Amino acid sequence: MTHLPIEAIKPEFLSTITHSDVIVSAATGSGKSTCLPLWASQSGRVLVIEPRRIACTSLAEYLAQQSSQPVGERIGYAIRFESHCNENTEVVFVTPGVALRWFFEDKLNEFNIVMLDEFHERRWDMDLLLAMLKQHDQHRLIVTSATLNTAQLAAYLNAKILHSEGSMYPVDELFIASNSRAMPSKEQLAERVINACQQAILNTSGDILVFLPGKAEIQACAAVAKKLNTLVVSLYGGCSAQQQALALSVQSQQRLIFATNVAETSLTIPNISCVIDSGLERRTHLRGTKTVLGLDAISIDSAKQRLGRAGRTQHGLCIRLYGQYAPLIKSTPPEVLRENLTELILAASCSSKGIDSLEFIDALPLKSKQASVAILTSVGAIDKQGKSTDLGRKLYPLPIDIELAYLVNSMPNNSLKQAMVDMAALLSVPARVYQLPKQQEIIESLNQQLQNASDLELAIGVIRGQVTDVLIEPEALSEAIQFSELLRSAFGLPELKYAASFRHNDLVEAIACAKPTSVYIKRQNRRGAFGNGSIEVVPAKDSRINPQCNAILVLDTYALAGKGTKQAKTLAMLNAPLPISLICKLNLGERTLSKAELIDGVIIINSILSYCGVQISEKKLIPQGEVLLRACCELILNDSLFISVGKKVKEGIIYHSLYNQANNIVEELPTPEAHLYCTLKSLGIEEQQDLELIEATDLIYQGLEDWIVSAFIEKHPLTVQLNDLVMDVEYHFNAKRVTLHHRHGKRKDLPRRWELPSWLGLNIKYKKASKTVNIN
């Protein structure tokens, strides 16, 4: 660890850390991740937060080796499911998830200094930790990065900036693309990568590092690369310890290392003389309220990071599989601006005074924040003030998504809790745990074992070792089993080997009851899609759901990006058939009442239940109470009940309104519906037999005295009839005008003034079709 570029700032760092937070900006490979924690330990116990698990373990193991002590003594680490440290460990490397849980437990009181490494990756958990540490103000902070807006961060923390230039050998760049502005592309990626590898092997003696977006692309390229005369190594989150060891140590044979962004920073991969950059990465995006993973072009900052790997120890070469002037974005947006904030907000509510009390380096998007607060409030994890509830504090430490933790907690009995725990464990593993076989005879055998055509049933069977006729990913299954055992312990449930049997239909009903948005119904379109009122999904090809199924329960989705919004598709990955009757039983959806009918003297209405625009049930009801009052109003006004009363009520209100206009009286009058409703209610109508106790006259509108109404009606009729000519009368008292609207009649000549009511002081117009004329 001697003669590293970071050594140049050691004296200033040691003097500054005693009285001020420090921001260290240093190039990739300068030694900041290995030197700074040891220097800082001279001033107290140090917690180093590393964004990636591989970096966390490898850095701890490297420093422990350098100190000639086993991991867990002077230098240790803690990651999910694994801890090698004690109360005397001077420097502890942890992932952000572990740091958040420790902060929740004791505010990291056992540490004096907290170092947030590779902060430029701008993960949401790192942003949250920094905001909470800033608010807590009990630790000396060190924030490091190779590419970062240090001025913004220095102002945020009121910290001092230290910069190390680093030492870089020249790196030649070679762009392989159809034109100079060609963007990174996944088309024929494996073929283009292997061609670049062959070119690199001819032009460099050192090892070759290939940046690819994910595990699938790495495996595809690695399979083809076996024909090359090199040692092929795969490096990604969750890869085997053997592959990690091959990547992090020099080998006798030239290495071809296929890696994700995990190799951009922190990890020291020795002897790299050539980098092949696909220009692609998997990046999260927010779609609706769900975080989805998309394939994106990298940023300019990431491109610089990748190139830097080739110039650490010798003159290097960087081969780009895109155009020299491709319009890449300058930097990758922080995760808080492009991900669901539910976990962040729950962590803040449990570990601080609430999300609104924290100051973030970048303000949280209001829309995403409000959506996540709504989710947490709906499951009872936070209260209306944004503070965590007892349930929220119980769910937060669990290493699974908050909604999955809520579902486990919501199960009504022990056996269903166990089933939901095993399901949550499988969903919490990033990698795919199993795949369905392609052989038809094996599928038929599987269908005989599992009668429900349910992905839930299959997934739980895989976790419990009850289903073997599938393609298992051993490492992913092992991690899922670890999750299950951890969750079973947290909820006080039996170990996995003692898993209780459960009724599949009871599990589906319990999940649907606790999370109604997981219920989807088949839409009436050609795509065979299902909807829940918010999003539309299509069952994945390897889902066991029967195509004839009309409703399903969906526990996991995967969004496929399209060229436009209409081309985007969301796949339903983990599903179970759901009977329509269950939607009715849980009263999901919207219930509407059809028009009231009078059948054999009995008032009848149709009650229609619709879910996501699809009608699922209809039944005839004899209404009572509120519904009866509304039905009576409807029938009276269409002249089916209490004949002529509806017409008289309408005319009474119209004449009252006209009288007020004529006399400049400002008064709010009821609608016919409101008058009838209030009158029926005041008369005590609750059941249909109550209607027999009232008379039609009880319902008549009496807003004015009879003698006033009679005199006004005589002078201001609503209809005028001259033989077969019938006209409706429209009064405009403020404009001193009356308009006669032709209703029917064959008379061709205009009405004469002497044939009409006197209407003193009012001008008279006659309107037939689109033609209006004055009557003099």
TrEMBL record:
Source superkingdom: Bacteria
UniProt keyword Hydrolase present: yes
GO function term, MF aspect, one: hydrolase activity
Keywords: ATP-binding, Helicase, Hydrolase, Nucleotide-binding
Record bears the keyword Aminoacyl-tRNA synthetase: no
SMART domains found in the cross-reference section: DEXDc, HELICc
Spans through the membrane: none
Stretches assigned to the Helicase ATP-binding domain: 13-166
The protein's name: ATP-dependent helicase
